[in-house]
Design a protein that fits this description.
Shape: elongated
CATH class of the largest domain: Mainly Beta
Distance between the termini: 76 Å
Oligomer: single chain
Number of strands: 12
Order of helices and strands: HEEEEEEEHEEHEEE
Strand content: 25-35%
Radius of gyration: 25 Å
Number of domains: 2
C-alpha cells in the first residue's frame, strides 16, 4: 500500500511539473505572438547603421517607428491597413529601399506626389518655394548625382516620395536612386529610446 502511495505521489509531482512547463510554454508563445503582432502592425524597433541622418540620428541610435500611422503592410500581400494619415513633408520615414528590397532605409521626406524639387545654393525648393521651416533651413543640401547640374528640377511621380538625408554630404538618397513608392513606406520614426543620453522625440 505504501509503495502504491509513493508511486501515486511521484505521478502527481510529474504531472504538476508537466503542467507548469506547459503553462510556461503557453505564456511564451502568447507573448511571442503578441510581440510579432505589435511589431508587424504597430511599433517596430530599428537601429541606425550610418551617419546619413546626422545630427538628427547618429550611428547606434535605437529608434521606435510607428507603422500604424501610414497603414501597416499586411505580410505576404500587397494590402495595407487603413492609414491614420498620409506621409507629409518633414516626416522622418523608414521605407523599403527600392533597389534592394531586403534593406530598410531612413530619410526625411521632402517631396510629395506631384511636387517639383530643386536644390539651389544649399537650399531645397519645392514647387519653386524654398523650404524655410526650421527642420530644413539649418541644413545645407548639396547638388549631387541627379542634381549635379544647376537649375535641375524633377517632378515627383504619383504615389511616390522624394527623400533626403539630413547629412546631405554623406547620404545616398533620392538624388542618386530616385523615388520611394508609397507601397515601400513602413512608418514614421517616433523616438530614440537608446542609448539613455540620446532619448528624445525625432523631429
Amino acid at each position: 500500500m505504501a509503495k502504491n502511495n509513493v508511486q501515486q505521489s511521484t505521478v502527481e509531482k510529474t504531472g504538476k511539473r508537466k503542467s507548469v512547463i506547459m503553462e510556461w510554454i503557453e505564456s511564451i508563445l502568447i507573448a511571442f505572438v503578441l510581440a510579432m503582432f505589435i511589431r508587424t502592425f504597430f511599433i517596430q524597433a530599428f537601429k541606425i547603421p550610418t551617419g546619413s541622418m546626422r545630427p538628427t540620428l547618429i550611428e547606434g541610435d535605437a529608434i521606435l517607428v510607428n507603422k500604424f500611422l501610414y497603414g501597416a503592410k499586411v505580410p505576404f500581400t500587397s494590402l495595407r491597413l487603413p492609414a491614420v494619415r498620409q506621409p507629409k513633408r518633414g516626416d522622418v520615414v523608414v521605407f523599403i529601399f527600392p533597389l534592394e528590397p531586403k534593406k530598410d532605409f531612413i530619410k526625411r521626406l521632402i517631396g510629395l506626389p506631384g511636387d517639383t524639387v530643386e536644390i539651389k545654393n544649399g537650399t531645397v525648393y519645392v514647387n519653386d518655394e524654398p523650404l524655410i521651416e526650421e527642420g530644413f533651413s539649418k541644413r545645407y543640401y548639396y547638388n549631387q548625382a541627379e542634381f549635379k547640374e544647376p537649375g535641375k528640377k524633377i517632378t515627383v511621380p504619383p504615389d511616390s516620395y522624394f527623400v533626403l538625408g539630413d547629412n546631405s554630404a554623406s547620404s545616398q538618397d533620392s538624388r542618386y536612386w530616385g523615388f520611394v513608392p508609397h507601397a515601400n513606406m513602413l512608418g514614421k520614426a517616433l523616438v530614440i529610446y537608446w542609448p539613455p543620453q540620446r532619448i528624445r522625440l525625432i523631429r
